[in-house]
Amino acid sequence: MTALYTWDVFSTLDGYGSYSEDGDWGGYWSKQGPELLEHRASVFEPEQRMIYGATTFREVAEIMLSGLDPNSMDEWNQRLIGMPATVISSTLQDTLGWPDATIERGDAIDIVTRLKEESDVPLRSQASLSLNWALMKAGLVDRLQVTIFPVISGRTGTSPILRGADDFDLELLESRTFDGRSVELVYRPSVR
User: Fold this and answer.
1) Quick check: 161 and 9 in contact, CB under 8 A?
2) Which helix (DSSP H) or strand (DSSP E) does residue 137 occupy?
3) CA separation (Å) from 93 to 54, 75, 83, 179?
4) Quick one: pLDDT at residue 190?
5) Cα 101 to chain center, whole Å?
6) 103-124, pLDDT tens digit by residue?
7) In the Cβ-directed half-sphere of 83, how many Cα atoms lie within 13 Å?
8) Which run of H or of E encompasses 41?
9) Are 74 and 97 in contact (CB under 8 A)?
10) Which residues neighbour 25 within 8 Å (Cβ) at sequence distance 6 or greater?
């Protein structure tokens, strides 16, 4: 049996995964609420292995391990830090202080194929856009979980979450609304 691989990504309504320095949105685009935070904590309660590309891993490690971002103290983020992580990178030399991370060098498709075959726990990746576009194209992403925050960031938005992806059919498996404003959609993608 192969491990389930979920690509978990946050987005604005217009498809951006982040914002530039000109934007002053704050974490979660300042739209988090108790239902969203409780749900995120429950998502990160079961054991799972995190999969990162180098850029996202650097960004997440900087935020989570610096202690400067108040959102790093959210329960789900604390659980995230405690999970084992595999970083697929040819450039990173160390794990930047992440407690249980390993760096894998080589072809991402080969690495994730092996991890899916060997892992006893589900695999989850946050952001890591180009990595997950390639994994989706290879048919390795079992679930695309998009949390959409109720903002449009046309002027300050960066990192369009699906701009580099191929064409896919999506089967909606679940949808939830949190705090009357943010929506989570979980799809099963299939290459078109």
Assistant:
1) yes
2) helix 129-137
3) 10, 29, 20, 41
4) 94
5) 16
6) 999 999 999 999 999 999 999 9
7) 28
8) helix 34-43
9) no
10) 19, 151, 153, 156
Residues 6+ apart with CB under 8 A from 138: 109, 113
Q: Which tokens hold the place of 157?
A: 């938005």
Residues composing the chain: 192
Question: What amino acid is encoded at 136 in this protein?
Answer: M
| Tokens 């685009």 found at | 29
What is the rounded distance in angstroms from the CA atom of residue 165 to the CA atom of residue 53? 16
Residue 160: band (very low, low, confident or very high) from pLDDT cuts 50, 70, 90? very high
Return the residue matching tokens 């329960």.
Answer: 75
Helix (H) or strand (E) holding 159: strand 157-160
Nearest to 24 by CA among 156, 185, 190, 191: 156
Q: In which band, very low, low, confident or very high, does the pLDDT at 1 lie, cut at 50, 70 and 90?
A: low
Say which residues have a Cβ less than 8 Å from residue 17's Cβ, sequence separation at least 6.
9, 10, 11, 127, 129, 158, 159, 160, 161
Cβ count within 10 A of residue 38: 14
Return d(Cα 126, Cα 41) in angstroms, integer.
15
Q: Say if CB 161 and CB 11 are below 8 A apart.
A: yes
Count other C-beta atoms under 10 Å from residue 55's C-beta: 17
Please tell me the pTM assigned to this model: 0.94
